[in-house]
Design a protein that fits this description.
With about 625 residues, this protein is an alpha+beta fold. It is built from 26 helices and twelve strands.
């Protein structure tokens, strides 16, 4: 083993460990691996960032913009509303939902497909009286299966296609992945839709309905002699920190002020809506010399039974909430624009690792964070200082516009059902037509795939299907950086002879020179790595090994590349293997080990279907 091989193996091992640890984002880990390879001379300095010009990376970026356009035009909403049955039982409903997810994922980013259908899935779960996870896990798996069926369905297929081109052959075409991918997807969806969903662990996610706002939200009045008089709002919150309380809104002169400015000066008679644990309420009142509003009303001899408990934020359908004081003699102005909404944090969101305190939500965005749900457990303790993780569900209060702005800026998805969006008449049809023409042209090979999808993206921009300001925000830049960084690293695996060495080891020590056993081994190893690390990174690492293995066996490399494509997309055992698995973690209330019960059977089905299909379509 040469020194270069030792270095690249060390880099790969460290990269996989960092992916699994999850302390840093995948794109940062990949960039670090690339820089180490450049510094050690494994990747020439003038080729360090050649990955950003790679056809696979360009195509992924264009497909992300096109997917945003299909979503923004309302085309995907219209299709989903018409495709999903309204009166069927759980099995038929789940089967229809995941079939639609697979169809959408074949032609757009599967995270985007999941984002479209997740609110419908949660609504369906409530209608069928099922835990959300019973539908969300099949939905996530269905979207992953659908991505296997076309060239643009998942970045791993694009990576595999370009590695084929590096061997001197042409890249795979648009539907070269369809025979194998469709067979796997059909059998996988049938299993998950009719049997597999029953194997999903029952977890109760603490949703908006179960968030008893009366338990946590209390109206307190600033009375004469209170320490809060003439204090800035932020100063009052600092004094409430020891009681682990936060001010979410206030009422002044019968006007409700949602997310008040931290620099607002408090006055005697102001009413603060404070979020605090019941056991800490007394401490919060004492710290500022406040009085419960209910107690003061009782002292004024108001008729009615008051219990000194919190005045609730009443919810309608789990999403809309108004601060509503029901006292008939003092009917305060209510804000019908103030809502409570759940947002799930996407993988690679820039929100990850930050807290409500560092984001300064109220001052910057006019919204308040009421609670965080993680692995099915909702908490308000130390809320402002808790670092946010991928898959967390955030319970936010504010105006719909403010929450929507925050959601799009920081990489969150709303869990509430959305209305069908058709900004302009005929725009949905235009977007779908352009996409269909592009796919047809790619299938016929009229132009290179990156060029065709770049033309389609340009058309979306010119026709205002994608607003110019949204072009760059529609691109998932962490994915782009990950791909661009890992491709030169994968090239170093081949150029240092490491791929040949690993292939030789597999042939001599594991497969004993048997080509079919070698194919199965490659598929299983790729699936295992994809469950532990990013699927695109796994594909980039395994493709050189697949090509070297096929060369040493003197068999068709296409079969081995297809095995890598299938294996890299089959991440069903953990929440970290694929973005969609992470995305459902919070809304479902799942824990890390909840995926394997359904995932292991699905991976066995993938192996059982894909191997004979690969050998039939791409004979050795």
């Amino acid at each position: 083993m040469t020194s270069d091989q030792v270095i690249i193996i060390t880099v790969l091992f460290a990269t996989m460990v960092m992916f699994l640890w999850g302390r840093w984002r995948h794109d940062l880990v990949a960039l670090g691996a690339l820089l180490v390879c450049v510094v050690t001379g494994l990747v020439p300095g003038n080729e360090a960032f050649s990955g950003f010009a790679h056809p696979a990376v360009i195509t992924v970026a264009c497909v992300l913009v096109l997917g945003y356009g299909l979503l923004n035009s309302g085309a995907m909403d219209i299709l989903s509303q018409r495709f999903i049955p309204t009166s069927a039982g759980p099995t038929v409903s789940i089967f229809a939902l995941i079939s639609l997810a697979a169809l959408l994922s074949a032609f757009m980013n599967n995270v985007g497909a999941l984002a479209v259908l997740m609110p419908l899935a949660i609504q369906m779960a409530a209608k069928q009286n099922l835990p959300p996870g019973k539908i969300l896990m099949p939905l996530a798996f269905g979207s992953i299966l659908g991505g296997m069926t076309t060239l643009i369905g998942t970045p791993t297929n694009l990576i595999v296609s370009e590695f084929r081109a590096s061997t001197g052959m042409e890249s795979f075409s648009m539907f070269d992945f369809t025979p194998v991918g469709l067979a796997v997807a059909v059998f996988g969806i049938i299993f998950v839709g009719f049997i597999g969903w029953r194997l999903v662990p029952t977890r109760k996610q603490a949703d908006t309905d179960s968030f008893d706002s009366a338990k946590y939200l209390s109206e307190v009045r600033i009375v004469e002699g209170s320490k809060a008089v003439n204090k800035h709002l932020y100063e009052a919150e600092q004094m409430l920190d020891e009681a682990d309380a936060q001010i979410v809104s206030m009422i002044r002169q019968d006007v409700h002020i949602s997310a008040p400015n931290p620099w607002r000066v408090l006055k005697e008679g102001d009413i603060l809506v404070v979020e605090v644990e019941p056991k800490s309420l007394s401490s919060a009142l004492t710290s500022l010399g406040l009085k419960l509003e209910e107690e003061l009303v009782s002292e004024d001899a108001r008729k009615g039974d008051t219990e000194g408990k919190a005045e609730p934020l009443e919810t309608e359908s789990g999403t809309i909430s108004e601060v509503n004081n029901e006292k008939s003699d003092n009917d305060r102005q209510k804000s019908s624009e103030v809502v409570i909404q759940e947002l799930v944090v996407k993988p690679n969101a820039i929100l990850i690792g930050r807290s409500a305190l560092t984001l300064d939500l109220r001052a910057s965005y006019g919204i308040s964070l009421l609670a965080i749900s993680r692995e099915g457990h909702r908490s308000i303790q130390r809320l402002r200082s808790i670092p946010i993780k991928a898959g967390d569900v955030l319970l936010m209060q504010g105006t719909p516009e403010a929450i929507a702005s925050f959601s799009s800026s920081f990489g969150c998805l709303p869990l509430a059902p959305r209305d069908i969006r058709v900004p302009k008449k005929g725009q949905a049809f235009t977007a779908a037509f352009i996409m269909a023409v592009t796919i047809g042209a790619a299938a016929l090979g009229l132009f290179p795939v990156p060029v065709l999808f770049a033309i389609a993206m340009f058309a979306y921009i010119v026709l205002h299907i994608v607003p110019l300001r949204s072009v760059y925000t529609a691109i998932d830049w962490p994915v782009i950086v990950l791909l661009a960084a890992m491709l030169p690293v994968a090239g170093a695996i081949a150029s240092t002879g490491t791929a040949d060495m690993i292939a030789h080891f597999l042939l001599d020590k594991v497969t004993q020179g048997d080509a079919i056993f070698g194919l199965i081994t490659l598929l299983v190893v790729t699936m295992f790595l994809s469950d532990l690390a990013n699927n695109a990174a796994t594909a980039a690492i395994m493709c050189p090994i697949a090509i070297s293995t096929a060369a040493q066996l003197e068999v068709n490399a296409d079969a081995f590349l297809m095995a890598v494509a299938v294996g890299a997309s089959s991440a069903f055992l953990t929440p970290i293997g694929h973005q969609n698995n992470t995305l459902i973690l919070g809304p479902s209330g799942f824990q890390f080990g909840d995926y394997w019960r359904l995932g292991i059977l699905l991976e066995i089905i993938v192996i059982g279907i894909s191997v004979p299909t690969i050998l039939w379509v791409w004979p050795l």
